[in-house]
Amino acid sequence: MIKLGAKELRTTKSTEEDFKKIKKHPIYIILDNVLDTYNVGAIFRLCDAVAAEKVILCGQTETPPHTRIKKASINTTEWITWSYAQTAKEAIDDLRFKNKDLRIIAIEQSSKSVSYDKADYSFPIAFVVGHETEGVSKEVLDIADQIVEIPMWGVNKSLNVMVSLGIVLYEAMKQKS
User: How far apart are CA 138 and CA 22, in angstroms?
Assistant: First the structure.
């Protein structure tokens, strides 16, 4: 087993050339007013893990550089492509303008949702996660190709936004392979 300490986790010895060799997957992550900076940073780290194309931070979502985002991301904000949009709908409209085949998947509890393991994760794809309390905005839910949720069997009614995204992303990667 490999054990990494804080220094090893936060120190990247890769070069720009190393990053260019990574084959990015046509995956876009849209943060619709995600407020917790630790969630934002962890999502950057998750995007690196699956070699996502881009993260789009929207609305009130904090942007790098930010100390808590940097800490939670273990510096992945330095090599993950990201941008900012005023709204998640604006981000989706821009992505769809560039790629008509893009599927939009909202991760949210809804009467219209399907279980995450029954969804169609055809690439290219954009996943939208929302505000920790209010969720994905209604305007995004209305235009999403599909809404997925993770079943809950306990007392708690929802999972952390980053955890939910991680589960769904890895299901998408599993279906792709």
Answer: 35
Domain limits at 170?
23-176
Contacts of 111 (CB under 8 A, 6+ apart): none
Indicate whether 14 belongs to any domain.
Answer: no
Q: How would you classify the pairing of strands 114-115 and 146-149? A: parallel
What string of H, E and C letters represents the secondary structure of 68-111? HHHHHHCCHHHCCCEEEECCHHHHHHHHHHHCCCCEEEEECCCC
Q: Is residue 92 part of a domain?
A: yes
State residue 127 phi and psi, 5-degree precision.
-105, 135
Query: Which pLDDT tens digits describe the chain residue by residue (177 residues)?
Result: 666 665 555 555 566 776 677 899 999 999 999 999 999 999 999 999 999 999 999 999 999 999 999 998 888 888 899 999 999 999 999 999 999 999 999 999 999 999 999 999 999 999 999 999 999 999 999 999 999 999 999 998 889 999 999 999 999 999 987
**Which residue in this structure is represented by tokens 């010895």?**
13
H or E stretch covering 27: strand 25-32
The closest alpha carbon to 107, from 50, 167, 57, 47, belongs to: 167
Q: Which residues make beta-bridge pairs with 103? A: 125
CATH number of domain containing 60: 3.40.1280.10
